[in-house]
Predict the 3D structure of the following.
Amino acid sequence: MFRILNKSISGSLFSLAFMTTVALAQIQPANTLDGTTASTPANLSVAEVNAAKRAVIADPANAGNKELTEPNPYSPTLFSKPKAQTATSSGWEFSFAPYLYMTGLSGTIGARGRTAEIDLSFGDVVSHLDLGIMGTFEAKKGKFLIVNDMVWTKLSEKRDTPGGLYSTAKIGVNMFSWTPEVGYRLYESKGGSFDVIGGVRLTSVENNINFGTGTLPGFDVSARKTWAAPIIGGHGVVNLSSKFFLSTVFDAGGGFGTHFTSQFYGGAGYKITPKIALIGGYRYLNNNFSDSEGFTFDAAMNGISIGAKFKF
């Protein structure tokens, strides 16, 4: 009887111990992901437990701090694409090319009905050059471009005249030519490019003619005229290598009192750096203008042009 009672008590104590162990296991601290334990009250809600786990992941040292704040993993700032950086450039490309036009001048000039033939070589022009400013400015954005070319030259020459009709002849020409154009790039590749261009050639010329008295009485006349002619043409570049290239410019037009105007340039260049190049070639520029007041300028400039091109 005693043995039966002892076994019964022992079984009851074992059952009580087992149930106590299970209950204690249910309230033991939960293991964290890094192997440490965090004390979790028995009455902690599921949401608070999940928040505590996320806090442990973010900073295990602050796992017990309920006031710890962390970024929402579903926040749009974590998944949204970064904003595109603001472009520092407007997209425009600019270049400037000052050059020396080693040209002669030949043709017929006139003022107030008096005319004279002029035939000056480059050497004559240089020795009698009073002013020479020449350059080209270009702006490009995408396939569109704006080109401005300017030539301003002032020269004079005095010679003895053969035959004795006049004792001396002095001729002066003050010429300004400005050609603003717009263009569109029709073709571009690593091998080169081609643009169609069109605009206006604005020309202003002052002719001075002075003949000293000889057999015939001398005279001194001068006049200035300014005119404009619409033009159309093209501009091409062929890249021979990463350094050397060929280029050409040509145009033609007329109207508004100008019988005809044309230009041709063919040359080559060498890129010292991506933004600096040496350029040179042959250029021909012709203007033919006359009016009812006796003004005539039917002359051509042709010769070698050398300079440099700067991009910025």
